[in-house]
Write a structure and sequence with these properties.
It is a single chain. With 71 residues, this protein is mostly helical. It has a domain at 24-66. It is built from three helices and no strands. It has helices at 14-36, 40-56, 61-70. Helix 1 packs across helix 2. It starts with 13 loop residues before the first helix and ends with a helix.
Length: 71
């Protein structure tokens, strides 16, 4: 698998996108629990919804722009 930190979302294959999603959600869950005191079951559901928002609302564009700047 290629380095996900250097790939645009559109460059990822299905396996890479699945792994990116898994890692993104895992990190978001951790932050919700630690920073906001959300219980783990609720945090998992919230993180899943937030990831769909992130992708659906072009939230990843800023990430892709940072990668483009570093290339």
């Amino acid at each position: 698998m290629r380095n996900l930190d250097t790939l645009y979302i559109r460059e990822m294959d299905q396996e890479e996108l699945s792994e990116f999603r898994r890692l993104w959600i895992k990190g978001y869950i951790k932050e919700l629990i630690v920073e906001c005191g959300v219980n783990s079951r609720d945090a998992e559901e919230i993180a899943d919804i937030r990831f769909e928002d992130y992708i659906g609302q072009e939230g990843h564009t800023a990430r892709d722009e940072r990668i483009a700047d570093s290339r």
